[in-house]
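Have a close read of this protein, sequence plus structure tokens, and explain what the tokens say about the fold. Thanks in advance:
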Amino acid sequence: REGDGDRLIRLWKVFLFQFKAARRTKYSLEAFHLLAAVNATLSPRMAHQLIWNRTVSPKGGLGKNIPLDLHLEHLNRHTKEFIRRLGPNLTKRAVDRGTGSIKV
């Protein structure tokens, strides 16, 4: 919850062995690909982005980080609710104006 990228990578190392022991081949392969990318295949700049660009703090403050994919799901939900509420006033202009006001 603190957005500690190094800690997340250490957890993925542990998860790799747990997934392998539980015969979760797809998860263990994904963990391996992540660790290989961070440690070997990516440039240092891209590896840094991959490590540290995994969480977001939409409201600010310590301990309020959420995963980026969850944040994207929240944005999608808000956008769909907005479009649904337009009802008969649904036009391209209204949608553009409303979705432009959503904080990304």
Summary: The chain has a mean pLDDT of 89. DSSP finds five helices and two strands in the chain. The first strand starts at residue 55 and ends at 56. The helical segments are 5-21, 25-41, 44-52, 68-86, 92-100.
